[in-house]
Amino acid sequence: MRIVSLLPAATEIVAALGLTDSLVGVSHECDYPPEVNAKPRVTHCEVYGKGLPSAAVDQWVNQSLSANNALYSLDTNLLRELEPDVIVTQRLCDVCAIDYASVVTIANSLPKKPKIVNLGPSSLADILSDIRCVGEALGVVERAETVVEVLAKRINAVKRAATKATSRPRCFLMEWIDPPFCAGHWNPELVELAGGVDPLGKKWIPSTRVSWEQINDAKPEIVVLACCGYEVIRTTSDLPIVEGNPVWESLPAVRHNRIYVVNGSAYFSRPGPRVVDSLEILAEIIHPEIFSGCFPGRGVVRIDQLNGALVA
Questions:
Q1: Is 141 a domain residue?
Q2: Phi/psi at 7 (nearest 5 deg)?
Q3: pLDDT in tens, 217-236
Q4: Average pLDDT along the chain
Q5: How far apart are the C-alpha atoms of 252 and 213, rounded to whole Å?
Q6: Do residues 171 and 115 share a domain?
Q7: For 282-296, what is each residue's pLDDT tens digit?
């Protein structure tokens, strides 16, 4: 079977099912597991990797969508050469990957029409269902069920341990800094499962822009900067933006040095197997008295507002 994946989460699902070698093409953003970096790239984004300021990226996205311009392009000639049997894509978010209608149109133009597997998760349960869906489409139903069972056990372990907490801190999961966006879809749910409450998050629906007045009114005790598509180093470069806002210093999270930067690209933005890593990251951040040291090696960074140092 020849598989093309058009988004990082799908690539990770295919890999978790033991079919990395069957991937003949991936998106420009697919980078995990590391061996997929050698695969042909079938998508392109005009601003990807150009290091634009966050505000400029947001402006480009809004202008492109308003003008009905595609954010991503698909290399039709390469796709034709790859002759995929299956294309795994999504119709959840036009900002996250090439739009579904374009994929269908191009796939139908190929000499051998591939099967299209659509992923559209809004919740944690949806993500697990998507793994089963991909497993069924690729003929590895039992493998998919095993992957889901292992992930479900990890989720339940966090849920059970979080019930021991004596408080549920207000944890603002920030999905974009300039302009500020709250988290959406599965991410506020992860905060809840980890023993916190996201006062601004929009559970099971897309993330939305929020004002600094709303952030101030929410009085978050913890702030987790999980910028969509950004690794830790890229997100930390935007810290002067939040630190320069008059509201920032008044937040309880800032006063008590509970500001964290996480790898949004690898974890929180990807509705695949590593979404459970995201849950475990949040659990350790929100309730270190219960989870401290349980989940090492995920690159979480705490920002010490007193001296500007980065504390791992």
A1: no
A2: -155, 150
A3: 999 999 999 999 899 999 99
A4: 90
A5: 14
A6: no
A7: 999 999 999 988 887
Residues in the chain: 312
Of residues 105, 146, 110, 114, the one with CA closest to residue 128: 146
What distance in Å separates the CA atoms of residue 22 and residue 312, rounded to the nearest whole number?
Answer: 37
- What is the crossing angle of helices 124-137 and 141-162, to 10°? 170
DSSP 112: S
CA distance 241 to 136: 45
* Number of domain units in the chain: 2
pLDDT at 309: 44
- As a whole number of Å, the CA-based R_g of the chain is 20
- Taking Cα atoms as reference points, which of 190, 186, 240, 197 lies closest to residue 222? 197
CATH number of the domain residue 87 falls in? 3.40.50.1980
C-alpha angle with apex 62: 27 to 211, nearest 5 degrees?
A: 115
Domain that holds residue 114: 3-120
Instruction: Tell me how far apart the alpha carbons of residues 186 and 196 are, in angstroms, rounded to a whole number.
Output: 14
Whether 153 is in a domain gets the answer no
Residue 23: enclosing H or E segment and its boundaries?
Answer: strand 23-25
